[in-house]
Specification:
single chain, 289 residues, alpha/beta, eight-stranded mixed beta sheet, 6-PGluconate_DH-like_C_sf, 3-hydroxyacyl-CoA dehydrogenase NAD-binding domain-containing protein, 6PGD_dom2, 3-OHacyl-CoA_DH_NAD-bd, oxidoreductase
């Protein structure tokens, strides 16, 4: 494994690009236009600079990481020579399938195609390609540079070899991989969405304030972050899409809280928009995007 292409330069795509670059991989980050990619380049370089200044990166790796990063608007150029392509776009199945169909035509027959999804079916995506044995889900967590876990989700046809290679990549990135057989929501999203949705219902019902609900979970159940804080960090629009998918596939217990629906309609999307269950200043918004 020498070169990794990443499709999508949003919060997750930028985080995955950073993690790959500091792990020694040549990284080509792809998105729709130069303006989007220039913003991503600035954000990733700021993260690399900050990691170096704080002592998390040694000087040699600092310069290697900078050299490893490349940015490309042409998907074919970005993906054609990569041994691994990680898609990190919105949680919309039609969008993902369209990208995988293109990648299947562009990439060499041995290239592994991975989707960074928190809920959606790698089997369904793989079925649209000629290489279902080489399609897998790699579920990274936000913020990628801090979170140690990668869920590796097998589709129905995903080979042992593919899973093994992806686990090796996770190890190289100093992440811990857990293997999951495909089922809607996998492990973490299935549990996290339930907890977060119930916290939203309690807030809507007036059981307690957002601050006190989160504090109770942190101090009483030893969660590092409260469920409403976490939802704001993930993005309430993203959480709503996840809940709608799980409601469709797993049933009534995943019905999205009406308060979540209302907040998304109002444009209260969490930390990235400046308001969600909490209010955020511009510095906090910049850290997110």
């Amino acid at each position: 494994m020498r070169q990794v292409a990443i499709v999508g330069s949003g919060v997750m795509g930028k985080g995955i690009a950073y993690a790959c670059a500091i792990s020694g991989y040549k990284v080509i980050l792809n998105d729709l236009n130069e303006e989007i990619l220039n913003k991503a380049k600035d954000d990733i370089n700021q993260l690399i600079d900050g990691s170096f200044e704080k002592g998390f990166l040694k000087e040699e790796m600092y310069f290697i990481a900078k050299e490893n990063l490349h940015f490309e608007t042409d998907l074919e150029i970005a993906a054609r020579d990569s041994q691994l392509v990680i898609e990190a776009v919105l949680e919309k199945m039609g969008l993902k399938i369209g990208i995988f169909k293109k990648l299947d035509q562009i990439c060499g027959e041995d290239t592994i195609l991975a989707t960074n999804t928190s809920t959606m079916s790698p089997t369904e995506i793989a079925a649209q390609t000629s290489r279902p044995d080489k399609v897998v889900a790699m579920h990274f967590f936000n913020p990628v540079h801090k979170m140690k876990l990668i869920e590796v989700i097998r589709g129905l046809e995903t080979s042992d070899e593919t899973v093994g290679i992806v686990k090796e990549v996770a190890t190289q990135m100093k992440k811990q991989a857990v293997e999951v057989n495909e089922f809607p929501g996998f492990v973490t999203s299935r549990m996290n969405c339930l907890i977060g949705n119930e916290a939203m219902n309690m807030l809507m019902e007036g059981v307690s304030s957002a601050e006190d609900i989160d504090q109770a979970m942190k101090l009483g159940l030893n969660h590092p972050m409260g469920p409403l804080e976490l939802a704001d960090l993930v993005g309430l629009d993203t959480r709503l899409r996840n809940m709608e998918y799980l409601y469709k596939t797993l049933g009534e217990k995943y019905r999205p809280c009406p308060l979540l629906v209302k907040y998304v309609k109002a444009g209260r999307l969490g930390k990235k928009s400046g308001s969600g269950f909490y209010e955020y200043n511009q510095e906090a918004i910049n850290e997110t995007v």
